[in-house]
Design goal:
Strand order of the largest sheet: 1-2-3-4-5-6-8-7
Largest sheet: 8 strands, mixed
Low-confidence stretches: none
Helix content: 25-40%
Number of strands: 8
Strand content: 25-35%
Radius of gyration: 16 Å
Distance between the termini: 23 Å
Shape: globular
Order of helices and strands: EEHHEEEHEHEE
Structural class: alpha+beta
Length: 180
């Protein structure tokens, strides 16, 4: 993938040098948000391992920069481990709270969709923590995702039960052509 620039930010493939910023953004989401159902933020070593596993398996991983600093990141990873699911990916998008509402998430998701299609994936699933996370739900709707289900009260975090919203989008030819 080539780097794409907008007036405000640069969208590019993630690199190992981004791990500290990615860890900080994700740590904030784990501590204060409900998008992730992790309870304790992983350290840089753990995040580097996750990054390397995704990159090494051929999955797309993008970052958005503003003024040379990571403003957000997104990646697609294995939806499920069984071979029949190999053409389906699950996406994750996290934006620095100070940079939300500036189009960073939208650009990351659009770039991620394009990268996943270019790599031959056929379906993308969003597993959105907290049915009250309207910003994420609307972001996914704006990029062609459809609501396919809600799992009620499946996670306990911040002293309350949380839902998980499932959304899905076809990639490339989707189910119209056999997976070769």
């Amino acid at each position: 993938m080539t780097a794409l620039a907008s007036e405000e930010f640069l969208l590019r493939p993630g690199e190992h040098m981004d791990i500290a910023a990615i860890t900080a953004i994700y740590g904030d989401a784990v501590r204060y948000g409900c998008a992730s159902f992790e309870l304790d933020p992983p350290d840089e070593t753990e995040m580097a391992g996750r990054f390397e596993a995704l990159i090494g398996s051929g999955f797309p991983y993008l970052v958005a920069e503003i003024a040379g600093r990571v403003a957000g990141y997104a990646y697609a990873g294995r939806y499920r481990s069984r071979p029949a699911y190999s053409a389906t990916v699950e996406n994750s998008i996290y934006v620095d709270p100070r940079r939300q509402g500036r189009g960073v998430g939208r650009a990351l998701l659009a770039g991620l969709i394009a990268e996943a299609e270019a790599r031959g994936f056929r379906q993308m699933v969003a597993v959105i923590g907290d049915s009250a996370n309207l910003a994420s739900i609307r972001l996914h709707e704006s990029q062609g995702f459809a609501h396919v289900g809600t799992l009620r009260s499946v996670g306990w975090k911040h002293g309350r039960w949380l839902d998980t919203v499932l959304m899905q989008r076809r990639l490339g030819p989707g189910e119209n052509v056999p997976n070769l």
